[in-house]
Amino acid sequence: MQPPTRYEKLPVTTLASGEELFIPLHRLEGAGSGPTLGLSAVVHGDEPLPNEVVRRVLTEIEPAQLRGTILAVPVVNGLAFQNLSRHTPIDMLDLNRNFPGDPGGWLSEQIAHVLTTRFVSQLDVHVDLHSGGVFPTVDYVYVFDETRELSLAFGSDLLYQPTRPYQGTFAVPAREKGIPFFTAELGGGSLLDARYIEQGLRGVTNVLKQLGMLDGEVVRPARQTIVNEMAVIRPRHGGVLYPEVGLDQLGRVVVGGTLLGRVVSPYTFETLEEIRAPFARGYMILLRGAITRVNPGDYAYMVANAEGARTAEP
Ligand SMILES: [Zn+2]
């Protein structure tokens, strides 16, 4: 189970409980020389699947075959992970909106500062792994012009090129340092864990090959689509979400107006809200595969606009 890495703890602070808060860091050194790839997971505490992707990468990559170093933080936000929550429980902030951080700021900013100065500072390339959370399942990768080939190499069918990147994400210290960075969103919701762990392992292996850190051909799907517009569909009512489309629809085309799910009151059993697909033609990016509790404003669905989407050249 345990990978053959050098393990260290990057100290962050002392908590009021007296416990030491630290960031776990694994170093897998290859036999040959090459760049340092950073891998990070669980910056959002409700996304445990990428933690297993990191473990698999560190366990299955043969150091004798590797040129360069993999530096991996398997749990970026341990407090949020303990709580299985997106936000840091102590200050209720989203760590992934507080980069590059501040040593004198909120706790999340202090954590971000340690990551910026002690982790990203050591990297030549950085890939941040996310998933859909406790209930939703997601499948796409971010792409920017500067990191296009690396994002494509990860091998996801759908890629999202936002017009403006989110402020305060892990992308910030990478951009300041001038190193390639992208975020991969895969799995979540538990139902397809095995598939997405394999997809994550294959994706990171492809990135290592693209960087010349491993020998071998990058295996990409026959068709990869880049979208520019994404709708996050957040319910206006809380209750129980009954899915009307299955997980098999992930990545597929969805026609505008299609009923995606219904929010039902668990008390009266009346339908409070019908959630329908936006855009005349869209791609299902995130959905919930089972009956789940939903809060108003949660991530319920994500649909990308197929209009304006383009196929990436092989
Ligand atoms: Zn996330």
**Number of β-strand runs:** 18
Helix content, binned percent: 10-25%
Radius of gyration over all CA atoms, rounded: 20 Å
**Overall residue-averaged pLDDT value:** 97
The quaternary state of the protein chains shown equals single chain
Structural class call reads alpha+beta
Number of helices: 6
Shape descriptor = globular
Bound molecules: zinc ion
Low-confidence segments, given as residue ranges, are none
Could you list some keywords that capture this structure?
314 residues, alpha+beta, 4-stranded antiparallel β-sheet, binds zinc ion
Describe the structure.
- The protein contains 6 helices and 18 strands.
- With 314 residues, the protein is of the alpha+beta class.
- Strands 1, 2, 3, 4, 5, 6, 7, 8, 9, 10, 12, 15, 17 and 18 form a 14-stranded mixed β-sheet that branches. Strands 14-13-11-16 form a 4-stranded antiparallel β-sheet, with no helix packed on it.
- A hairpin with a 5-residue loop joins strand 1 and strand 2 (20-29).
- It is globular, with a radius of gyration of 20 Å.
- The mean pLDDT is 97.
- The structure holds zinc ion (ZN).
- Zinc ion (ZN) binds next to loops.
Summarize the structure.
This protein is α+β, with helices and mostly antiparallel strands.
How do the helices and strands line up, and which of them pair or pack?
Blueprint: E1 6-14, E2 20-29, E3 32-41, H1 49-60, E4 67-73, H2 78-83, H3 107-119, E5 125-130, E6 136-142, H4 148-153, E7 158-160, H5 171-177, E8 181-187, H6 193-210, E9 225-227, E10 230-233, E11 239-243, E12 253-255, E13 259-264, E14 271-276, E15 281-288, E16 292-294, E17 301-305, E18 310-311
Parallel strand pairs: 3-4, 3-5, 5-8, 6-7, 7-9
Antiparallel strand pairs: 1-2, 2-4, 6-8, 6-15, 9-18, 10-17, 11-13, 11-16, 12-15, 13-14, 15-17
Helix pairs in contact: 1-6
Bound molecules: zinc ion (ZN).
Zinc ion (ZN) binds at residues 44, 47, 130.
